[in-house]
Amino acid sequence: MSELKAGSAEAKFADIIWQNEPISSSLLAAKSEEALGWKKTTSFTVLKRLCNKGIFQNVKGTVTSLISRKDYFSLQSEQFVKETFDGSLPAFVAAFASRKKLSSEDIAELRRIVDEYEEGTE
Questions:
Q1: Distances (CA, A) of 9 to 50, 105, 111, 112
Q2: Are 85 and 34 in contact (CB under 8 A)?
């Protein structure tokens, strides 16, 4: 999973791909210049790096994803909890809640997620 990690700039670039795929590499370069201020060479370098990580593919100048945005960020989150909180989701939530007050909407959403999970495991 550590192979899939992307920095903030790479994540913004990846979002351009996910929002526009399939996208030609030349249009991707133009969109990244507009959105990120990158030169074409920077876009192609980052694209190659993300392709090497197995997130995207560039086949004959057409860029598509190998992993969905949702799955990518789910994997990123799982890895963060594993590395930072020894895999303990409750420890992560406790740490998060100790610094940021959870709204009643946040708590209700967390309860809904847990309830749906419990229903799916029966």
A1: 12, 31, 33, 33
A2: no
C-alpha angle 72-19-12 in degrees, rounded to nearest 5: 60
What is the pTM for the complete model shown?
Answer: 0.76
Q: Name the CATH architecture for the domain at 2-69.
A: Orthogonal Bundle (1.10)
46-79 confidence digits (pLDDT tens): 999 999 999 999 999 999 999 999 999 999 899 9
Sequence spans of domains, the chain: 2-69
